[in-house]
Amino acid sequence: MKEIHGQLKADGRRFALVVSRFNEFITRHLVDGAEDALRRHGAREGDLTRVYVPGAFELPLAARKVAESGKFHAVIALGCVIRGQTPHFEHVAGEAARGLGWVALHTGVPTSFGVLTCDTLEQAIERAGSKAGNKGADAAVTAIEMIGVLEQVARLE
Question: Would you say 57 and 97 are in contact if contact means Cβ atoms under 8 Å apart?
Fold first, then answer.
């Protein structure tokens, strides 16, 4: 029986971080976490590119263009949507998730989901580097692992 496990090696790989500016006081911590994780696994500064978009709803389009460029091994989408008093939250969060999933499936480029969908600001803070870790770092590690998995699958006989 064959088993495939992704290696956590980022050296020689290029990553695009597609980042929502909305809730920037949270997303900047997600970026810091993602970039720290990438560097810890061997990525060099020159292999990282940040692409900023207005909000989480715009992440899928930018992620698609980045993935289709052929210049990156993976895309890491980072954003934060906090529930408010209207159904806007569900629309934005749902479309961001659906769109980013579409990007990965249709381009074949690993596209990790580092978009916080929280009920409160406190939950967002916890997930951007305090009690619950840093979901930006988690998204970066997922991207690294998926690159390795897809490379191994491509080499199957």
Answer: no
Do 42 and 10 meet the contact criterion of CB atoms below 8 Å apart? yes
Q: pLDDT tens for residues 49-101? A: 999 999 999 999 999 999 999 999 999 999 999 997 777 778 899 999 999 99
Residues 136/128, Cβ–Cβ less than 8 Å: yes
State the catalytic residue, choosing from 5, 29, 41, 88: 88
- The rounded Cα 124 to chain-centroid distance in angstroms is 16
Topology of the domain comprising 15-152: Rossmann fold (3.40.50)
Contact predicate 17/48, CB 8 Å: yes
Examine the residue annotation and report whether 5 is marked as an active-site residue of this protein.
Answer: no
Q: Which long-range contacts (CB under 8 A, 24 or more apart) does 98-102 make?
A: 98/60, 99/59, 99/60, 99/61, 99/63, 99/64, 100/59, 100/60, 100/63, 102/60, 102/64
User: Taking the domains of the chain in order of start, what are their residue ranges?
Assistant: 15-152
- pTM across the whole model: 0.95
